Amino acid sequence: MSATLLVLAVFLACAVEAVEALTVVLATGLIRGWPSPLKGVGVALAVLAAIVAVFGPAIGHIPLNALRLVIGTLLLVFGLQWLRKAILRASGHKAMHDETAIYERQVSAARAAGRSGRAFVTDWYAFALAFKAVLLEGLEVAFIVVTFGANQGHIALACLGAALAIIAVTVVGVLLKEPLARVPENAMKFAVGILLTSFGTFWAGEGAGADWPGADRALLVLIPAFLLVSLLFVILLRRRSPRAAAPDPAPNPTEVAP
Fold it and tell me: For the segment 13-36, what is each residue's pLDDT rounded down to a tens digit?
């Protein structure tokens, strides 16, 4: 896989997670002040950096075929989960992910919550909310960075893709000071689902002993093939009368949803 494709795949996947984390952090910071949420973000980023630093090199010691089989299987699980929800949203069988509505619910919750301090944090609610949002969304980022980077032997390039995504989303969010509702998040999730499923199939096949024609160039066939099949599912599902799709619930910072 080329360096450009690696960085692009990691960038898109991490950008989706960054948008969701930013929605929670913005709502908390703008309503309750920035010192405590920023401390929560900083601690979460430190924990995530430690996870990548520890598990990135450790994964490199696993035999290559076993590594590809395990990573490919895990990516298939993640990718198919993302792709299933993206297909249901695109076909009208599931409500679109609405960052504005989620932001407004987070704002209401932040206004209603009490205020208390612990240790070096003056507003524990704001700290904990920002910490959980960044950590749990970031765990998927860390997983993507470690798996993509370790499998291709380019942890640094995978980290670059993740860093670019986080910086881009953060800069835009800070400048706008509002949820990134105009970002085509659902289209991005559809694309990420295609990429994760394609890479997962490719690496799991390699790990199981398959010899892909054209080596890495087989991805140039797998990606369009999964895209075509997914679009066909969207068309078929649209022909069925979808039940009224309820809006996505506000994300619980203790959960991670694709």
Answer: 888 888 888 888 888 888 888 888
